[in-house]
């Protein structure tokens, strides 16, 4: 369900910092969208899958759970993301 349309990632961050918007939302292709809730089963499966991915991921890759991934025009919060880099990056 869109809340505000066609904004940049920088505008999205400013709105969060000012308290104008807050969780649970994410930015998808410039549209602030309400996030769906998660069941206990969903959370369990997500964590089990992340454990398997961590065990098989090569050095230089990080497995993130329900964390923002900043892209051009979007900042989704996928259940699991395998990203290049180190955790502090």
| Residues in β-strands, percent | 15-25%
Task: Report on the biggest sheet.
Answer: 3 strands, antiparallel
Overall geometric form: globular
Number of helices: 2
The strand line-up of the biggest sheet is 1-3-2
Low-confidence stretches: none
Percent of residues in helices: 25-40%
Number of strands: 5
Tell me about this structure:
This protein has helices spanning 9-18, 40-56; strands at residues 2-4, 25-28, 31-34, 61-65, 80-84. A hairpin with a 2-residue loop joins strand 2 (25-28) and strand 3. The longest helix is centred in the middle third of the chain and has 17 residues, at 40-56. The model has no long low-confidence stretch (mean pLDDT 91). The chain has a 3-stranded antiparallel beta sheet, with no helix packed on it. The chain is α+β, with helices and mostly antiparallel strands and 89 residues long. It has one domain. It is globular, with a radius of gyration of 15 Å. The chain contains 2 helices and 5 strands; from the N terminus they run E-H-E-E-H-E-E.
